[in-house]
Amino acid sequence: MLTPSDDHHGPPVAHASETALIGAVLLAPEYFPVVSNLVRPEDIYQDRERRVYEALLWCSEEGKPLDIAVLVDRLSRVGALEAVGGLAALAELTDHAIAAHARSYALEVRSASRTRDLMNCVETASTDLIAGDLPQDVIARLKRTVDVTDDAIPDDTIAEVLNRRMNWLEEDVSVGAGLKTGWGQLDHMLGGLRGGQLIIVGGRPGMGKSVVLQNLCCEVAIRQNQPSLACSLEMSADEWVDRTICSLASVDATRYRDRKLEPGDISKIGEISESVARAPLSLSDASKQSVASIHQKAAQVALRANLGLVAVDYLQLVAAEDRKRPRQEQIGQIAQGLKNMAKELDVPVVAAAQLNRGLGDRRDKRPRLSDLREGGDIEQAADVVVFVHRPAMFSEKAHPDEAEFIVAKQRNGGLGTVKVDWIAKHQRFQSCGSEVQEDFWDE
After folding, report:
1. Which domains, ranges and CATH numbers included, belong to the chain?
2. Residue 208, Ramachandran bin (φ over 0: left; ψ between -120 and 50: alpha; else beta)
3. Measuring CA to CA, which residue among 374, 357, 353, 373 is closest to residue 365?
4. Which of 92, 194, 268, 318 would you label with 29, given CA atoms 20 to 30 Å apart?
């Protein structure tokens, strides 16, 4: 996250990312080759972090281990240990760092540095123009500077990628497993939700898209204790929490809304509320949110803890950066922006999406990929598309509890339909035939 420098008028500085970058390298030295390809010492603004980074570079070039002991020795030899705060300060660098986010930290630091470079260029250009330099000469110098400043981010070599995948194969299976959704058959089909994925949950109005996202956040943040961010552009935070309570406590949503609770409801709500209050779930219910603002909030959560999930309800309500573009292009940019965020933060991003109303005129009411509203680019950006379908919305013969999760797209797996039960009064989808477990919180 970029913030103004300490005088509040200076250039932007990625304070937290600079500190977290050093901490991530100390936690996982194997990421340093990637980091050092992106960040130069002069890219780091803060004196302590820059001195430590220079020492890390020296250690790497000399083939020495990148650990605290060697780092302390190097800093002592160059007379910089006291300047960086000593051993205690070095040890604290890892407190708010997540090793797997090292590349994301590096990109933030690099971006802030390039912004400062450009600001300096513009300031120099203004001074030169005032001094009487010819505009074409100033423009030419600016262009040369921009060409240097806006250099491309190096790609991974095939050897680096192969090494990562071989390490992944050697890991315990549970380490690389995706996040569980709470619906067993869906987990079996998808292999869980994985970092870098954009998962679209599509459905007609009233089908339960928001309920799916809310149920998913409950599973990940409350039962699995994974830090999560829910961006609700349609429901308020109060509504979100009300639904969560009714779903987890198995309390009738209508009774809850009308505050006509039964004695048993009160005790169940009390028990569930304690667990909900402890959950590492951040809620954002601002009605106007862009991909950039969602990304910023997610990055802030990721700096504090290992972010497990981002949920966006819903995609078509996210503010477009360029509203002058055709609507379909706007939606495409939003979808691609969410996908880019998923990759950069290495987190699954689940976004609800509206469907065209035209499918209601078809004989076959089951949704298809072509039903995604302004959806060609959504389909292209998504790794997984799951449709929520409740036959009773279209047919009186269908059972009101019957529902389906239709996996219509999956980049790395098969397609199919998962049958689930819709419990309307509790605002919950659950696996077929299962009951609400009283031991929901038991492991």
Report:
1. 1-170 (1.10.860.10), 184-431 (3.40.50.300)
2. left
3. 357
4. 194
CA R_g for the chain: 25
Does residue 314 have a cis bond before it (omega within 30 degrees)? yes
Q: What does the alpha-carbon distance between residue 105 and residue 299 come to, in Å, rounded to a whole number?
A: 10
d(CA 13, CA 412): 39
In sequence order, what DSSP letters do the residues of 64-76 get, joined into one string? ---SHHHHHHHHH
The model's pLDDT over 294-352, given as tens digits with 9 standing for 90+, comes to: 888 888 788 777 888 999 988 888 888 777 778 888 888 888 889 988 988 889 999 99
pLDDT category at 7 given cuts 50, 70, 90 is: very low
Mean pLDDT throughout 202-206? 86
Pairing between β-strand 349-354 and β-strand 309-313 as defined by DSSP bridges: parallel
- Residue in the structure block whose two tokens are 């001094």: 131
Residue indicated by tokens 């059972």:
399
Selection from 45, 38, 41 nearest residue 15 by Cα: 45
Phi and psi, residue 12, nearest 5°: -70, 145
| Phi, psi at 95, each rounded to 5° | -60, -40
What amino acid is encoded at 32 in this protein? F
Angstrom distance (rounded) from CA 7 to CA 5: 6
Give CA–CA dist 73/80, Å, rounded: 10
Q: What's residue 89's pLDDT?
A: 86
The conformation of residue 427, written as its DSSP 8-state character, comes to T
What mean pLDDT do residues 199-217 have? 89
Indicate the DSSP class of residue 290. Answer: B
Contacts of 65 (CB under 8 A, 6+ apart): 29, 59
Paired tokens of 18:
């600079």
- Residues 189 and 417: beta-carbon distance below 8 Å: no
